[in-house]
Amino acid sequence: MQAPHTLTGKTRMAGILGWPVSHSRSPRLHGFWLARHGIDGAYIPLPVEPAKFPGAVRALADLGFRGANVTIPHKEAALAACDLVEDEARRIGAVNTLVFREDGRIEGWNTDGWGFLESLREQAPGFHVKQGPAVILGAGGGARAVAHSLLSAGCPRMTLVNRSPARAEALARELSAHGAHVDVTASPPLEDAALLVNTTSQGMQGQPPLTIDLAPLPPAAVVADIVYVPLETPLLAAARARGLAAVDGLGMLLHQGRRGFQAWYGKMPEVTAELRAFVASDIPKQAG
Ligand SMILES: NC(=O)c1ccc[n+]([C@@H]2O[C@H](COP(=O)([O-])OP(=O)(O)OC[C@H]3O[C@@H](n4cnc5c(N)ncnc54)[C@H](OP(=O)(O)O)[C@@H]3O)[C@@H](O)[C@H]2O)c1
Predict the structure, then answer these.
(1) Is the pTM of this model over 0.85?
(2) Is 78 exposed, middle or buried (0-12, 13-18, 19+ CB in 10 A)?
């Protein structure tokens, strides 16, 4: 008989703070890794309303949690709750991973951009960020993480395209302050783009579709979408139909969790085909 799964007096605890949090795939992701590595750990969904967030973070630390992921709408409040903040998270202005240190201090990271770069590396192995200009659709939280990480990784030039131009201009000013070449345009300059990334919620289930003609992209261009519901967005399907390399949003989601898992449970986990299939089985493949 298989031994029942039980917690012990030494179980390492972490979880995800959000409001709501029931849609999150992170418990499934971390649960897979905990089981795979035979770790005495638990990863718990933690629905916390915004007014209670700072108190909840302190309480988790006092209760002996190792840390937590943070999702909408708490990522900015999480930054304010930290005693130490990594440079990348400070630049992005948001924290998605909290580590409760043994010295009692709370450390904050943002691993979304790192997860995006790891996903690019995995799903478009021949591509390098330094290769050419990037076009980013959107200027929200996801765009901030993607844009900062691409520039840190050596992207030579970037264009932001957003429904609300003022938001894109504000982000471009901020990125340019670090010495980067960032423009804002109304229509995406695809002719010389090495990378196109959708960071808007268009194409997500229940949202309007993203309408863009990929024909002007060079044949070596890579198309990435950070939307992962559905897994195969119409943008990714159009890219594949044109023979372009396509990078899905699930990869970013899976990779962004790795650093937190290592900090809380002591093991750097891998993104394997089996993990991908396990998490993907809970997500619609196509829109509809
Ligand atoms: N794969 C991952 O790990 C990951 C991580 C983060 C986010 N995401 C996904 O990325 C998407 C965006 O998330 P976010 O946190 O960045 O959201 P956000 O901060 O609310 O930003 C949303 C962006 O989408 C644009 N947008 C929304 N509706 C639009 C429409 N009808 N037409 C044109 N533009 C529209 C917004 O433009 P305005 O500025 O004009 O409003 C803004 O640029 C979501 O689907 C989310 O699930 C995935």
Answers:
(1) yes
(2) buried
